[in-house]
Design brief:
Strand order of the largest sheet: 1-8
Number of helices: 28
Largest sheet: 2 strands, antiparallel
Number of strands: 8
Shape: flat
Distance between the termini: 88 Å
Strand content: under 5%
Structural class: mainly alpha
Helix content: 55-70%
Length: 735
């Protein structure tokens, strides 16, 4: 069998031990027993150098940096779409009015003009006023055009009532109306374009003057004629207005994001917060206060710190020796070691952070005892509870009464927690622990105080609440531990054995043969696991669920067939693919139902990479001349990695074979010989090499299987055949 790599376990556990020691020592040094705090105020002169016992945020410096980052973000602006639309519409209306006036002017004047470009005489017909404004038409008084008004006509100017007078002078309007087509149309388009460009660039209120100056420069650059350039600028400037407004929401969002980018400033562990003779700054005071070092009458003393370090070494050394000699499973399981480290760290940190704000009876020490008992081992919980209690009392500067209370109550909790494996008795267990806590605290109080006073009554009430609340919190947190560390609790496994569970119910209906097979495998596995001191709950549940993948194609497995065998119509390669696929299908179903990792491992490993012999030999028989690749007929999965998984593999292997032999009236001696041969085949095929099963364990498993089979298939006493007495025939019928 493959031996575990002790070096890897040692390195990992050593890292956890070092981390736990550092956390514990830091909590002790900064706790209530070692340090009494410094009597300092802002602007006082410190008479000693103070270093940070652990990393702490320099909140004042951090806040200053964040404030600077906040103020560094300039105001953001957003385009006012309504203003833009109003400006564009106004300019458009202006040129529509201009177009209309030009048409009217063309209708009033009688053109006797020649085209400035060709010299041809223009037709004297004047387009009607109903012509579309976009159509090109002869315009009045273009460059090089000679027009004259009839002498007998005295019409008012076409622009007399036009709103263009609000924007332009009379001479500018006349110039615009009489502008030649080849000048007017580009002029109109260019003016609109320059206004749009100015709006797209954005115009702030304070930058309006600059925008107008830039606009005037653009017109001057476009037109060399001063009249046209000035006219374009006057038109555009009449409509241009600020279109950018402060976007307060966006600005605030950017400022907040900028503040979040600032990493907190820390005083690192060992870094000097304030030096000897230095004035206490606001930053230093805030750091000392957050560390709990600001108080009256503190006297720095290195002796208690040395004592705290030595005490941690002693407690941790004792705990490690116990785990090494009496809890090998924890020592060799990184996940369980990490679980213990996390539980311990959380409890110690909670004690350190809360001891000064809550009654000491509420410190979460018995929660540690309960969690370790339920998730790992009750004896381990009892032993470690003593060390955790001592450390907690020192961190919190607690009393002897508190120490005795935690030791006794924690031990009681560790014992009872193993029985909290059914949800309907959880509250009953909580009440028992609460009353036990009351009795413990009351007896200790009466013993030490020698009288019954209000303090004892209040603390006893707290003890009752603490016991009940601890049970509720610990039980409620079990799903977290199960998910994060793959821990399988008895309650979780108990839920999975409920016949109303969806997968088990489907097995009974859709694959009854597989369901019956799974029940027998579960019984075999549970018995064997008990005999070799493996986890019986995991073995039983693993037996229930190891073949759930057969639900997809139940008719292709012999235990579900009623006469017809679909494999008779398939080639061996197709058959073996269907048979072996039930493992991967089972894993998918297990993932969908969020089954525990231990059960998913059993599903994956219960066939390992064994050979499907029936179809392998069938393939060789059908293609006697072809070389058959044995790998094509093997499962493609991991070999068993745990004792429970290996037991399921062996139980699954022997169950069907024994059922077949019993149906042929084979003797138990023959059955036992076959069972041992099947198990030997697995050993020879290296399927158990990673399972941590010893040869002694394997022999015990074989005996356990036979004990179950003998109980199931024992010979029964033949019942005598009862003769049915003949019914007497009445005399009347004889005659």
């Amino acid at each position: 069998m493959k031996k575990p790599k002790i070096g890897n376990y040692f390195r990992f556990n050593a890292l956890l031990l070092i981390a736990a020691s550092v956390i514990t020592i830091a909590s002790l040094i900064t706790g209530g027993y070692i340090t009494e705090g410094y009597a300092l105020k802002i602007n006082d002169v410190s008479d000693k150098r103070i270093k940070a016992p652990k990393q702490v945020e320099n909140t004042v410096a951090t806040e200053k940096l964040r404030q600077h980052a906040y103020e560094s973000v300039t105001t953001r602006y957003k385009v006012d779409a309504e203003t833009n639309e109003k400006i564009i519409e106004g300019l458009s209306e202006f040129f529509q009015e201009s177009d209309l006036l030009r048409k009217k002017s063309a209708e009033i004047f009688i053109p006797e003009r020649s085209n400035g470009e060709t010299g041809d005489t223009l037709p004297e017909e004047v387009p009607s006023a109903e012509a579309a404004p976009d159509e090109e038409m002869p315009q009045a008084n273009t460059a090089g055009l000679d027009t004259k008004k009839p002498a007998d006509t005295k019409e008012p100017p076409v622009y007399e009532n036009s709103f263009l007078l609000e924007y332009l002078t009379v001479s500018q309007i006349e110039f615009l109306i009489n502008m030649a087509d080849d000048q007017y149309k580009p002029f109109k388009e260019n003016a609109t374009k320059l206004v749009n460009e100015a709006l797209e660039a954005g115009i702030k209120e304070e930058a309006l003057t600059k925008a107008l100056v830039d606009l005037k420069a653009e017109f001057s650059k476009t037109y060399t004629e001063a009249d046209i350039s000035e006219l374009g600028y006057d038109i555009a400037s009449s409509f241009i207005a600020p279109n950018l407004s402060e976007d307060l929401e966006a600005t605030e969002k950017l400022r907040q994001e900028k503040m979040k980018e600032i990493e907190p400033v820390y005083y690192r562990k060992g870094q000097t917060i304030i030096d000897d003779g230095e004035i206490v700054s606001e930053e230093a005071y805030a750091a000392l206060d957050s560390l709990g070092l600001i108080s009256k009458g503190y006297k720095e003393n290195i002796v208690p710190i040395i004592g705290a370090v030595l005490l941690v070494i002693c407690i941790f050394g004792f705990s490690c020796l116990y785990i090494f000699y009496y809890n090998e499973k924890l020592y060799k399981s990184p996940s369980e070691a990490l679980l213990l480290f996390v539980i311990y760290t959380i409890i110690i940190l909670l004690v350190r952070l809360s001891y000064s704000t809550i009654p000491h009876v509420f410190l979460p020490v018995i929660a540690f005892s309960m969690l370790v008992s339920m998730l790992l081992d009750s004896r381990l919980a009892i032993v470690l509870n003593i060390g955790v209690t001592i450390l907690t009392v020192l961190i919190a500067n607690g009393s002897l009464e508190i120490a005795l209370y935690f030791i006794i109550s924690g031990t009681f909790m560790a014992i009872l927690a193993r029985h909290a494996n059914q949800r309907n008795i959880i509250y009953f267990i909580g009440l028992i622990i609460s009353f036990a806590s009351v009795m413990v605290f009351l007896s200790i109080g009466l013993l030490t105080e020698r009288k019954l006073d209000s303090t004892i009554i209040i603390n006893t009430s707290y003890a009752f609440l603490n016991g009940f609340m601890t049970v509720i919190v610990c039980m409620g947190s079990l799903p977290f531990w199960e998910t994060m560390f793959g821990v399988v609790t008895p309650i979780k496994l108990l839920d999975l054995t409920n016949p109303n569970n969806e997968l088990l119910r489907r097995l009974t209906i859709e694959a009854p043969g597989t369901y019956h097979h799974s029940l027998i495998v579960a019984n075999l596995a549970e018995t064997a696991a008990y005999d070799i001191k493996a986890d019986t709950n995991i073995a039983r549940v693993g037996g229930y669920y190891h073949d759930i993948g057969k639900l997809k194609y139940p008719q292709y497995f012999s235990e579900n067939q009623l006469g017809e065998n679909p494999h008779d119509d398939l080639d061996p390669y197709s058959s073996v693919q269907i048979i072996t696929s039930h493992v991967s299908i089972g894993l998918e179903m297990a993932d969908e139902r969020k089954l525990p990792k231990a059960i998913k491992d059993i599903i994956e490993e219960h066939h390992g990479n064994t050979l499907v012999k029936y179809f392998y030999h069938k393939a060789k028989k059908e293609d006697a001349d072809e070389e058959i690749n044995e790998a094509d007929f093997r499962y493609k999965h991991r070999r068993p990695q745990t004792r429970e998984s290996a037991i399921i593999m062996l139980a699954d292997t022997v169950e069907a074979a024994v059922r077949s032999m019993i149906s042929k009236s084979k003797k138990m001696e023959e059955v036992e010989e076959m069972v041992r041969n099947l198990i030997k085949d697995k050993i020879d095929d290296n399927q158990l090499i990673d399972s941590q099963l010893t040869m002694k364990d394997i022999d015990t498993v074989s005996n356990s299987f036979m004990r179950v089979f003998k109980g199931m298939y024992h010979e029964r006493i033949p019942y005598p055949k009862m003769e049915t007495p003949k019914k007497a025939v009445p005399k009347e019928e004889v005659s």
